[in-house]
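Retro notes, item 3 of 5
We never archived the inputs for the fe (iii) ion complex last cycle. Fixing that now. Sequence and ligand:
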Amino acid sequence: MFRADLHCHSTCSDGSDDPVVLVKLAKSIGLGGLSITDHDSIEAYHTALPYAAEIGLPMISGIEFSADWFGESVHILGYCFNVHHQEIAAFCVEHQQRRHIRNEGILEKLKGAKMPLTLEEVVATTTQELTTIGRPHIAQAMVAKGYVPTIQEAFRRYIGEGKPCYMSGPVVSVEHTIDLLHRADALAILAHPQLIKNKKVLEHMFTLPFDGLEAYYARFPQSESELWVSMAKKHDWIITGGSDYHGTIKPSIELGCSFVDETIFRDLQKLYLKNSAVA
Ligand code: AMP
Ligand code: ZN
Ligand code: FE
Ligand code: FE
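Structure as it came back at the time:
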């Protein structure tokens, strides 16, 4: 059966597999298509695309942007853009600056809570030249320093949303993110609606000009996905899906545990190839 996983993270953000390793893994488990959707980064494509072409694994471009709607965090997946699009690259830089301010703020709060940690220490606990430094890296460093036993515990007690050492820092709006993606001829997809617990937020998201919805997600059962599939159809939105694989950073999630079928993947691939043919 054809499976394409359209949501996973590499070492360019908070995944533990190098982009090439991720492509190799996708091929080895028999995926027919892949998109790497690092947080606020398209770095992975430098090495992933040539390697995927070499081993014959079809890929489409992807990214996961963090956005904000009145203090609520919303993740937006962008697909099918030309990986050389200037506006996407500039937006990634803007996000890296936002993250830098936010991460420094979180480290300051940790220091206040008697858990001093430097940015250098955070980077040192990762294995690569990452471009996006996220809370999972901070959590990993907290484990390394013996402040918490697990990454999960770091989020639960200290750096999860609303916890004492969390801060959002500067944010980018959902509307601005959708608009930016549209300017790059990309699809703007509402990521994992299953995780949006506030009904008001969800209702509002359905009034925005998204192109689609991530109906198949992580380990959520097929029966639950059907609700999201019907919601997408009602709004004439396309349907996407993926595992949100992060490697050892989220060990319970395997690559390919959620996926889209061949019809969906080929449609996306057509748009990706069209956008990529533009000089
Ligand atoms: P950031 O983008 O730096 O704010 O980090 C958010 C990322 O942290 C999410 O995309 C997840 O991968 C991860 N994350 C969020 N909440 C948790 C949690 N409770 N336990 C483990 N990982 C989490
Ligand atoms: Zn992540
Ligand atoms: Fe997400
Ligand atoms: Fe993700």
